[in-house]
Amino acid sequence: MLKVALTGGIASGKSTVSRLFQALGAPVIDTDLIARELVEPGRPALERIVAHFGPGVIRRDGRLDRGALRTLIFEDPRQRQALEAILHPAIRREAETRLDRLDAPYVILVIPLLVESGGGWRQDRVLLVDVPESLQIQRLMRRDHCSRTEAQAALAAQATREQRQALADDLILNTGSERQLQEAVNELHRRYLALARGAR
Predict the structure, then answer these.
(1) Which of 82, 101, 120 is where one domain is finished?
(2) Number of domains making up the chain
(3) pLDDT tens for residues 148-195?
(4) CA distance 181 to 189
(5) What is the tens place of the pLDDT at every residue in 122-145?
(6) 132 shares a domain with 111
(7) What b-and-e string marks burial along 8-28, b requiring 16 or more CB atoms within 10 Å of the CB?
(8) Domain residues for 162?
(9) Per residue, what are the HEC states of 132-190?
């Protein structure tokens, strides 16, 4: 099975692109969704996060206070690394388990932090959803109702656009219309099916 790692910066359109692939019949494994599941109440990863960061990252209902945790990791890179050390291995294990259950020509593996996680995902190709930083900031401010300063800080915490481009085999420049985005996904879908047939 051809493994396509889909990545991109914050607010670049990764979720939209993955949904378009899913609509064409491609299975999608989203590591962001896995991460959310791993920090549900009662899960070992959440217990380890509380043990490290303290009870201030838990809401009254027992769920993770993402805002409080985000503030901690944005202010201190070492805290971000500590969180990644807790979550990344668990996310990878769960993703591998789900991959093993699949039987399809190709799979889209959504890994927003592909560059930051240091690789090791054993993907066959990297698909980058790319947008200029100015557009990322606009979309992020609109989506999260945050200030320009907060949006810029979120971008600064991630890999650079150039680092992601250096890793990419395929690229979707997500600056056009919905129709153009659909056409780009359709073309890549045909290419991945052909590559999967060739590999078999």
Answers:
(1) 101
(2) 2
(3) 998 998 888 889 999 999 999 999 999 999 999 999 999 999 999 999
(4) 12
(5) 899 999 999 999 999 999 999 989
(6) yes
(7) bbbbbbbbebbebbeeeebbb
(8) 1-27+105-200
(9) CHHHHHHHHHHHHCCCHHHHHHHHHCCCCHHHHHHHCCEEEECCCCHHHHHHHHHHHHH
Clarify whether residues 169 and 126 are in a common domain: yes
**What pTM did the predictor assign?**
0.89
Quick one: 97 and 115 in the same domain?
A: no
Show which of 45, 76, 101 is a domain's final residue. 101
> Do 10 and 70 contact (CB within 8 A), yes or no?
no
Residues facing 108 on adjacent strands: 4, 28
Order of strands across the sheet with 2-8?
28-30, 106-110, 2-8, 125-130, 170-173
